[in-house]
Amino acid sequence: MQIAVTFRHMEASEPVRAYVEEKVARVKKYIDEPIEVQVFLSVEKKIRHNADVTITAKGITIKGSEETNDMYAAIDAVVDKIERQLKRYKE
Prior knowledge:
By secondary structure, this protein is of the alpha+beta class.
């Protein structure tokens, strides 16, 4: 699994990067390898935290986006969305 994390309008943080990698690793059980994941984390006006995730694997592309007041909450919400989409896809 290849995970690329991009920070926009915010400082690159190793704890946030590790949190993203830990959460995104949960989707491995729904898709076969190889998996390519792109995560874009951005902050607008210091109060709007956006998390966008794009997963590409075996010819499918799944996207999810979430915006909250907390970066960790945005990451959790977008990973939950992606998981629901993958469950639907798998069935």
